[in-house]
Amino acid sequence: MLIVANTTEDAWRKAVKAVMEHGKIMVTEDGDETKEIIGLAVRIKKPTISIDEAPAEYPFHGKALQDYVDQLMTPENRWGFQYTYGERIWKWDEKVNQVEAVIERLSKSPFTRRAVIDLTIPTLDHFPNRIRDPPCLRVICFNIREEKEAPMLPAVKKLHMDVLFRSHDIFGASYANWVALTHLQKYVAEEVGKRLGERVFMGELHSYSVSAHIYSRDFETARRVAESVRE
């Protein structure tokens, strides 16, 4: 299923509606009842970077939403978690700064298809006695393409970002995930632009969720969100 949205809030509302209306009941291995869609693609044309624009019904605002951003944008684990996305993005397996690697690759070859961040560490993630909850976010891809806003205007470089989630809590996590990822997208675009000596504009955010789901504890509020969507 594909959802096309102008903004991140629009994407969140449409995704919640899609799961509530088309999702099938599935009980997880932890015993949680969910509604689930297998294979949900979301295209956000103008992803939101502000933490002050969260939907009223969304469970995280202010500092809680800022924490989501910080956990992805820093390699330091200040929250006492077993790991954070930021650790794996900025310091994969204690060794590799993947952000610097993709910036360097894009700077040398702007139209490369090889600027990819991988969050999986197989020696940890395949073994429940080492990592009980392996990362939901698995892959982040960056692609720069030249595009025209109008036929009479010159083409500009835009950085698009594609992300893959193996499992995605659409009601409780997706909005915060997308906002945090947009901060990363903006950072990469700006740093590549500095090295190229020209502006690299923000492009679209494309999110693919293998298991897009909503937990039963959120069904009541999610139904209200779904009802607010006007096609």
Quaternary state of the chains: single chain
Overall mean pLDDT = 96
In DSSP terms, counting alpha (H) and pi (I) runs of 4 or more, how many helices? 7
CATH superfamily: Thymidylate synthase/dCMP hydroxymethylase domain
At the first level of CATH, the class is Alpha Beta
Structural classification: alpha/beta
**Nearest-angstrom radius of gyration?**
18 Å
Annotated CATH topology: Thymidylate Synthase, Chain A
**Ends distance:** 16 Å
Q: How many strands appear in the DSSP assignment?
A: 7
Major pleated sheet: 7 strands, mixed
What's the domain count? 1
Structure description:
By secondary structure, this protein is of the alpha/beta class. It has a single domain, classed as Thymidylate synthase/dCMP hydroxymethylase domain (Thymidylate Synthase, Chain A, 2-Layer Sandwich). Helices cover 35% and strands 28% of the residues. It has seven helices and seven strands. Helix 6 (174-196) links the parallel strand 6 (156-169) and strand 7. The longest helix has 23 residues, at 174-196. The protein is globular and about 50 Å long.
